[in-house]
Design a protein that fits this description.
Blueprint: H1 29-36, H2 40-44, H3 50-55, H4 61-75, H5 84-97, H6 101-109, H7 117-131, H8 134-145, H9 153-164, H10 175-183, H11 189-194
Helix pairs in contact: 4-5, 5-6, 6-7, 7-8, 7-10, 8-10
Protein name: Lipoprotein
Keywords: Signal
């Protein structure tokens, strides 16, 4: 499962104690301390390193979520302004992938800033998915789909492509993820996020919405 697209469970004593399934996930004391000492860019924005190096191992999503919680606890004052919500979102994704929906919803709720309709609709849709609330999900999806792009969107998308050497995102951001969740609405989050529907159900077509 590729997370890009964010509960401090771990006690910190001179770095950190054992995290989750530490031995199987490669989180020995020295390795955990090393990860917790990374800059925000290294810890969260490296698509091959940081917490992702832990999360991409089978069965290590919960350990990666705990690692993010420990990182926030240790480095809160060093995280760039506005990026704590990014870490919280990724933690929520990992908690949802490990089946801890209640904790995941709490994390997702912490990522809803005032004035960011795109993020708010995305969070609302994801929370509704975890609650199996189809009506709330469709409403959030419709709101996201109706949003006009911000004035600086093209430049921001081009900068993302250049910076990360990945395909530039399309507007509305994360609508493709929301549509996968809608198509696989009765599946676990990890399968739905990846678009792997076990029942082979056809895509759900939500009602057309008017711009709010």
């Amino acid at each position: 499962m590729k997370y890009i697209g964010l509960l401090v469970i771990v006690a910190l004593v001179s770095g950190c104690q054992a995290i989750g399934n530490a031995p199987a996930c490669g989180l020995s004391h020295p390795r955990a301390d090393e990860l917790l000492s990374l800059s925000f860019e290294q810890f969260d924005q490296d698509f091959q390193g940081g917490w992702r190096a832990v999360a991409e191992q089978e069965g290590c999503e919960a350990s990666a979520a705990e690692l993010i919680g420990a990182y926030v606890h240790k480095n809160r004052e060093k995280v760039p302004t506005g990026r704590l919500s990014t870490l919280k979102w990724h933690q929520g994704q990992l908690l949802a992938a490990s089946g801890k929906n209640r904790e995941a919803i709490k994390a997702f709720k912490a990522t809803k800033p005032q004035g960011d309709d795109a993020q708010n609709y995305y969070a609302d849709a994801t929370i509704a998915f975890l609650r199996r609330d189809r009506a709330a999900f469709d409403q959030a999806r419709a709101g996201l789909a109706a949003l006009p792009p911000p004035k600086n969107w093209e430049k921001a998308a081009a900068d993302f492509e250049k910076r990360f050497n990945r395909p530039r995102p399309v507007w509305p951001m994360n609508l493709d993820v929301v549509d996968r969740l809608g198509t696989c609405f009765d599946q676990p989050y990890s399968k739905a996020y990846a678009g792997h529907c076990a029942n082979g159900a056809p895509p759900h077509t939500p009602p057309t919405a008017h711009k709010p």
